[in-house]
Design brief:
Length: 248
């Protein structure tokens, strides 16, 4: 296998026209340059330079390797520039997994700022339930997952960062006796028919857990996995419900 560093030394000798000039350019001694070229000739199995007066010139093999050395040098320069861009966040990709209600309020403005500050970043956005999103991050298929806090305080291989607490709002039909109240005790809704707004999972667990702490289990008479539809059911008088502020 040919040594790339030695190929660069050969290129310096060929472009400068002498071992001495190449040594001065590279900061080596002439003897060190000659040794490196000799080692490269052994690797190549063919002479690369021939003497001409006080200087040297490349053989056909030496000229061939010099041309490839130029290509290698250009590729290395491009690779270094690409790595610098990646380290500085100017290029690369970011895979984000998120759930519906944080899309408009959190994800969209964050990605707008990211686009403005790092326009070369490629984005991969997918709406996913936490049960699928967290394993994707653990496997390395995604970089970030925005999820409702999982049951576990620690997930092996992942770092959890608290973003915010999303408070729940009581959704009541127009004209409901409690509709004018700014603050409700959840127990006051215990005897009401309920409209569900959450699918099975951590969000529904939050609602059921809060109701249990208030001493009752909600009587769901209608259900939707979409907040807008659930609010429509409430507005039509089918029941009451809880909706997170981000979802509302």
């Amino acid at each position: 296998m040919l040594d790339v560093r030695r190929m660069q030394i050969l290129r310096a000798v060929v472009t400068s026209g002498s071992v001495t000039s190449a040594a001065a350019e590279l900061g080596y001694t002439p003897s060190a340059v000659s040794q490196q070229v000799s080692a490269l000739e052994r690797e190549a199995g063919i002479a690369l330079l021939e003497r001409v007066g006080r200087g040297v010139r490349p053989t056909a093999a030496g000229l061939l390797l010099t041309q490839y050395a130029e290509t290698v040098s250009r590729n290395l320069t491009e690779a270094e520039a690409a790595l610098a861009d990646l380290r500085a966040g100017r290029t690369g990709s970011l895979a984000v997994r998120y759930f519906g209600s944080v899309g408009p309020s959190l994800v969209a403005p964050a990605l707008t700022r990211l686009r403005r500050e790092h326009p070369g970043i490629r984005l991969d956005l997918t709406l996913l339930d936490a049960r699928e999103a967290l394993p994707e991050v653990a496997r390395g298929d995604a970089d970030i997952a925005i999820v409702v806090r999982p049951r576990e305080d620690a997930v092996p291989g992942l770092r959890l960062v608290h973003l915010l607490d999303d408070e729940y709002l009581a959704a009541l039909p127009p004209g409901h006796p409690l509709a004018a109240r700014r603050v409700l005790d959840l127990a006051e809704l215990a005897a009401e028919p309920w409209v569900g707004s959450e699918p099975q999972g951590p969000c529904l667990d939050v609602v059921l857990g809060a109701c249990a702490e208030a001493g009752f289990s909600p009587d769901f008479v209608a259900a939707s996995e979409d907040y807008a539809t659930a609010l429509g059911f409430v507005a039509a008088g089918l029941g009451v419900g809880l909706v997170p502020r981000l979802g509302a």
